[in-house]
Amino acid sequence: MSTAIRFVRRGISGFVLRRVLLGLLTLLLVSVIVFAATQALPSDPARAILGRTATPESLAALRKQLNLTGSIPGQYAHWLKGFVTGDFGNSLAARGEPVTQVLGKRLENSAFLVLIAGEVSIPLSILLGVLAARRRDGPFDHTSSLLMLALAALPEFVVGIALVVLFGTTVFHWLPAVSLIPPEDTPFQHLKALILPVATLVLAVSPYIARIMRASMVEVLESDFVEMARLKGMPERHVLWRHAVPNAVAPAIQVIALNLAYLAGGIVVVEFVFGYPGIGSALVDAVANRDLPVVQALAILIAGVYVALNLMADVATILVSPRLRTSLR
Amino acid sequence: MSVLEVENLRIEIEGTGIDIVDEISFHIEAGEVLGLVGESGSGKTTVGLSLLGHQRRGAKIVAGQVRVDGKDILERSPAQLRALRGGTVSYVPQDPSAALNPALRIGRQLEEVLAAHRFGSSHEERLREMLEEVLLPTERSFLRRYPHQLSGGQQQRVGLAMAFACRPRVIVLDEPTTGLDVTTQAHVLATVRMLCRAHGVAALYVSHDLAVVAALADRVAVMYAGRIVEIGRERDLFLASAHPYARRLVEAIPEISGEHELVGIPGTAPRPGHRPTGCFFAPRCDYAVDICREQFPPRERVAERREVRCHRWQEVLAEAVHDRPLAAVRTNGASADALISIRNLQAAHGERPVLFDIDLDVAPRQCVALVGESGSGKTTLARCIAGLHRNFTGELALRGIPLRPGARNRSRDTRRDIQYVFQSPYSSLNPRKTIGQIIGQPLRLFFDLPRRDQHARIVHALERVQLTSSVVDRYPHELSGGERQRVAIARALVSEPALLVCDEVTSALDVSVQAAIVDLIAELQREMELGLLFVTHNLALIRTIAQEVAVMSAGRIVEHGPVDRVLDQPEAEYTKRLLADTPSLESALAIAE
């Protein structure tokens, strides 16, 4: 593996290129697993889709449509070729529309949800972590630690339902309990409907980021260079944000990436709870309808998000650490 | 009026009422350097930091005054303290590689001091001046570097530039040259001296290295267990100290001339909360009488600007400088057949070559010292011999039988024959194992002994390094640094090796402990007829222990011969420079005269 990519030049762009190649390799492996799990297993997907009562003719027609005839490697090659060229096949459930068309809109909706959740939770949890570390063992630190632990322990569907009960249905009636967005609208037009799902996602990921940020800040605040900055007469705010935080975010970046990647998968449950028309609910529907092409496309897509986020995290870590950055030159 | 006056300072462990330091009083004039010496844990850094109104987590200043130009800084508000720190009073840290922010460029870190204290109008011009003062390159590209792109010496110069940035009145230097090579250290010290004199700064130089303090300080304060036990002019203190502890400390300094034996101080200093009534040094003191055990000695004036805390200082002073035992004549009982012989050895770290054409012999019962600065390759050579570094070519033989690279490829007996003691006893002992288990491991590995015999051997090994058998069930963290290094030596010796490799074994230890450890190794070497390879950067240490010395520089042995010859008539340029740069009491006092 390393010999194959050694020719790539050095430097940050070389590093990114190498990691992109490795990421593609990972995706290739994922595609094998997805293909094996959905299509190549001994059971007959066509029968699984159509049920026991299907006629032999309809089974044969579906097999042909799904490319289930021919050798397994041949099927895989055909399937992979479709993927690479952007042809994900046609959905079985949605009147035979192409998968890209079925998912396109939902992908936008989900991406919007995840981005807002990320934009709220990342600064918020970094701030919480920094404040807790600054007044370590103080009342704020203890309270926030307790709260974070409790939130981390709750599954997001519980948090989601609790929020719905609190703000949507039983206690207050401030916000819509479901986030139905008509297919012709964008999420922008229904911001109010987004509040509860975003809040659920933020509550689901913030505790982890805040805790790692606190831990790494505590360590950095004990370091010699922070003491030195104080002994140089730097204002405390400057010490905290200019000297300590840049050194503390590196470990947090990895956790942020893992959590964002987790959001891409964890969104399934949240979208389902709120009936939000994103890829999560699409996946749930597709599995229920045995819509094989959609399931395959979504599995690869989510894997792709994981790979991309991890890559971005590694690059970001290098960019915030001069020692790593300069060693790449 | 002195620039800095400290009066009756008391610092406690927060919330316990237990003092870390107490009754600290001293003053420093403009342009004067006061050396504050003491062993680790004596509270010297705590005192140093209090001059900036700062305390580490868990410590609190509870009483006393720190006056700068007559005004007490301990009464200042946080905002006033910030204005003081880095402006009027500045600090040079112990470890510059840790004290510079790894995420910020050097220029930023230097400039922010000027900005925070609104010093001068043109920062750019002042930055250039600052860099010039500490002999750093003044190019713009240098300011754009990150700390890890500088050498250790350059990092410490940046620390100095930062400290002198706003022309402070007082500067606290906290062991600023520990971890630097002697050559770099000599340059940094010269810079410090020059800057303090030129700008009339009152400097407190905190150090455990008396030789360095002797070279730099005008006056010296000696701390023991949180108290200043003696303060006075540097010459008086080093030539005829009035406090027994100060005397013992001076005797523990290795000297290049090697006339006198190194004498360690037995026992350890009591920690806060465990200090006896009466004089804290009484349990370790030869002069102690009843009153010393009952009453804490008051501060007494010996002479103009010289004070001591000892009930019996007059007796101590009346005695001539301790009749320091002359060094024993080192017999070179080495036989002709080499125990270990190295011919034409080349080694590399990865692709980078680090050792070139090394020829070296160690005979049985002989001690060879391997001396050089960090990066000279001395540790790599030691590791090749011990089988810890495999990437080498050339001949390496034990009793004429070739040794293979890598300990794993060697026979059990060969591994038993070569034992290694590492630099830092803080990281070389497994923290999850008891001392008994640590020493027992090689026994199980190399000897098939019944349990009872094993235990007896462990106890014997501990006694040999002057530890009692009560430590068997203790864990490394319960022991002091010196005790841990003794355990590491016991672990090496329990396998009854033919060759012992000691890699900088004293550099992590205090002077008084260092003397005791060197003494112990020398004695054990004679007793057990060991071949000994003693790796060190401290030239002053080797006279007392080694018969031969090999001086290394940049991966080569540049000079090799009997210790006395090499130290008295060095031939290689490099050795001459190394000798000149090594700080020593003798040379410092000679200059002062």
Provide a descriptive summary of the structure in words:
The complex is a heterodimer of chains A (329) and B (593). Chain A is mostly helical and 329 residues long. Chain A is built from 13 helices and no strands. Among the domains of chain B are: 244-327, no CATH class; 340-592, Rossmann fold (3-Layer(aba) Sandwich), CATH 3.40.50. In chain B, helix 17 (451-464) packs across helix 18 and helix 18 packs parallel to helix 19. The chains are: A mainly alpha (329), B alpha/beta (593). The interface between A and B is medium-sized, with 23 and 32 residues.
Number of domains of chain A: 2
Provide the structure class of chain B: alpha/beta
The rounded distance between the terminal residues' Cα atoms of chain A is 22 Å
Q: For this entry, what is the oligomeric state of its chains?
A: heterodimer
The description of the largest β-sheet of chain A is:
none
Query: For this structure, what is the CATH homologous superfamily of the domain at 340-592 in chain B?
Result: P-loop containing nucleotide triphosphate hydrolases
